[in-house]
Each structure stands twice: as C-alpha cells, then as structure tokens.
Amino acid sequence: MAESAQDRREGRGRLSMLDTLPDAAEPDIVWALEALRERGMPQNAILDEFNSRLADRGIAKVSKSSFSRWSVRKAIQFRKLDEVRAITNDIVASLGTADADEVTVAVAELLKAQIYEQVEKGELTPKAIKELAVSLKEVVNAQRSSTEHRRKLEERQNAMVERVTDRSEEVLREAGLGTDRIAELRREFLGVRSNAS
Q1: Rounded to an integer, what distance in angstroms lies between the CA atom of residue 126 and that of residue 45?
Q2: How far apart, in Å, are the Cα atoms of 183 and each of 50, 93, 167, 176?
Q3: Residue 63: which residues within 8 A CB-CB, separation 6 or more?
Q4: 38-49 pLDDT tens trace
Q5: What is the secondary structure of 109-178 as a DSSP string?
Q6: 79 vs 72, 86, 117, CA distance in Å?
Q7: 64-89 burial, b for 16+ CB within 10 Å, e for fewer?
Q8: Pick the residue with more confidence: 102 or 1?
Q9: What is the pLDDT averaged over residues 174-193?
Q10: pLDDT digit string, tens, across residues 92-120
Q11: Degrees (nearest 5) of the Cα angle 71, 76, 81?
Q12: What is the Cα 147 distance to its own chain's centre?
C-alpha cells in the first residue's frame, strides 16, 4: 500500500529557496509577505519587485516556481491564522470585556480542545505535549491571577470611594448641612450607605 505524503514527511522537510536567503534579505521577505497578505498586487509583480530588492543587496533572484510554492504555503498559513483570529474575536465579543475571567476560561477550553484533537490524530510528539501542557498551565494561572487582581482592584476602589465619601461628609458637616441631608446626598450621588447615625 502506498504511503501518503503526510506519512512520508518527517521533520521540517526540505528548505525552500526563500528559507535559505541570507539575513540581509529579511526586510525584503517581510515586504513580500505584507504585499501578499494585502492582495493589492499580482503575485508576478510582487516577485519582480522582490527580486529587484534582492538584486540591490547583491543577492541572487528567486525563481518563479519557488516563490509561488512559498506564497501558497504562506497563504494557507494566513488563512488559518485569520480563521483562528475570527473565532477568537467572536468568542471574546460574545463574552464581553466585563468579565475577563470568562475570556480566560474560553481560551483554556479552546486550548484543551486543540490538545485533545492533536492527541487523537497522533500528531503530537512528547515534547509538543509537554509544551502544550505548560501553555495550559500558564492559561489556568493567568485565570487565577486575573480573578485575584480584579478582586484587589475592586477592594482598593471601594476603599477609595469610602474615604472620599467620608471626607465629603466631614466637609459638608463643617459647611452646616444636616445629617439627614448629608445621608440623602450620599445615597443620591454616590450610591453608598451613610456612616452617620
């Protein structure tokens, strides 16, 4: 029985011509990626400009077929990234920004689902499983930290409001306002109970 291409491929595979370009070509590679992602120019025009930029640096030009294979791989990566970003944005939007803990929980659940899917497919090495487990642990820790941080901020804010309202009460008393009027103002404007008896 013939092996599929996925079964035969192990490791990273053969490097493309663009992968072997010197570090000096990095700004030009970034430019080509951005141009491909924007979809404002035809691929041939991007290749021509890319090769012109490489020639200015004294680097040999890239063949059309090599650039085409590379751009197809990048387009697939961009599409997957866009899908993940869209899903994440939808989840975050549906949860709202008011409850960051729910967002953290959703991210943890997505990560767990991804880990499970990859384990089921048998596509994970022990090292990859360890890295995913560490990522999941960090997300859970972020969730705990987020909850505690929010609680501390709320406590600080409440304490500050209480100090300000107490000080306001003192100033209003010194100005001659009665206790009943101060309590009424406190309830009306600040939405807090009166400390005065």
Answers
A1: 44
A2: 73, 40, 13, 14
A3: 17
A4: 889 999 999 999
A5: HHHHHHHHHHHHHT---HHHHHHHHHHHHHHHHHHHHHHHHHHHHHHHHHHHHHHHHHHHHHHHHHTT--
A6: 11, 10, 20
A7: eebbeebbeeeeeeeeeeeeeeeeee
A8: 102
A9: 71
A10: 666 655 555 666 667 777 777 777 667 66
A11: 120
A12: 19
| String of DSSP letters for 56-121 | HTT-PPPPHHHHHHHHHHHHHHHHHHHHHHHHHHHHHHHH-SS-HHHHHHHHHHHHHHHHHHHHHH
* Residue 195 near residue 169 (C-beta atoms within 8 A): yes
96: left (phi over 0), alpha (psi -120 to 50) or beta: left
The rounded distance, in Å, linking the Cα atoms of 154 and 48 is 58
Q: How many CB atoms lie under 10 A from the CB of residue 18?
A: 20
Query: What residue type is 61 in one-letter code?
Result: K
* Contact of 74 with 33, CB cutoff 8 Å: yes
The helix/strand/coil state of 12 is coil
Are 97 and 86 a contacting pair, CB within 8 Å? no
Distance between CA atoms of 33 and 75, rounded to whole angstroms? 9
Residue linked to tokens 């951005």 = 34
Residue of 114, 139, 138 whose CA lies nearest to 128? 114
Tokens matching residue 16: 């493309």
